[in-house]
Sequence to fold (411 residues):
Amino acid sequence: MRLQTFAAALFLIGTSAHAQNVAIVNAKAWTLTGDAAIENATIVITDGKISSVDASAAPPAGVRVIDAGGKPVTPGLMHPATRLGLIEVSSATETVDHAAKAGAPGAGFDVQFAVNANSVLIDLARADGVTRALAYPSSSNTAPFAGSASLLHLFEGGDVVEQARVAVFVTISNRSANSTVGSRSAQWQLLRAALDTAKTPSTPGAARTADSIALESIVQGKAPLAISTNRESDLRQAIKLANDYGIRVVIVGGAEAWRVADQLAVAKIALILEPMSNLPASFDELGSRLDNAALLRKAGLTVAMSLDGVQSYNAGLSIREGAGLAVANGLSYIDGLRSIMSAPAEIWGVADRFGTLEPARDGDVVIWDGDPREPSSAPTTVLIQGREVSLTTHQTELRDRYMPAIKSLRP
Fold:
């Protein structure tokens, strides 16, 4: 009996490993290592990693072959700032885990413990080509800190948290100030005081709190500080903060970033933009304009896309549409693709294993039925580390269940 069990286990291991060896042929491969696609490319994935991308190459013997039919093939999408796994229905409080209240830590509020891998929103994101995402908190009990974010790798089944405490998020704006300390000036002072404390050597044997551990990772350069802010004056404060403390800063929002593009570039601050912002939603965003991304890329900045309000509910579709809108307003086509694939990987420190189609990168690959930036396009095949994932979602099941009834009512 034990021998049979052992033999069965070996068989499962063997078939699992074999399932990761794939060759995609006849692909229009957007590798993102150059500015043009490789036509008629063959992409080989071995043991979950890309091993080669070559034009007109024959697939290796004994691997599964997928014919892309000349369609676009890209790396998996990466959503750079979402709440996937932390919310299901905003009005159902038992499904909302992205905010901490009284008694919880501030910078150390760590969302990894609440991520729900069985969320139907993760299924939806994966079916739309998202294979990695950053899940970040919205707020904590300690202004201006929101908490620590987690990197997700959207495998089917099991834990999707790939790396916890990837970054510490803070929010500085008129709205957040009014709801907490009353002034954004106080928010900046509290942030600087916290960083000063983190830079001070701790007393030997003293207990380290979740907040101190999180902030030490920032001042020691192990993780970036992500600042959600939009107004030019706050962006200038973020630049000064990065210079004064020698830390890595990422801006989330950045509606008026075009006004300080050159200064942001000198400070090497990357941005996660709201590409649909062209009208002010608050006094912090009076300078909003649709060509923000194009102007920032022209200045040499790394730019990724995240749409406020639909970060979780349509995680893949929203960033694809946002990238398309940015391209329509001056961003180059290739930078539009990079903004939802390789740029987020660069921002969150995983570009060595994700974000491009080149050897040694994870076999997270998507075959599209059309232009990935078009909302009407969709994946035909999604691979995560070479394993094909299901494109079935709660939405497609509802469609398949009720569509026949709808058809029967048509004349």
Summary: The longest strand covers residues 161-171. Residues 1-19 have pLDDT under 50 and may be disordered. Residues 345 and 351 are 5 Å apart (CA to CA). The chain is about 30% helix and 25% strand.
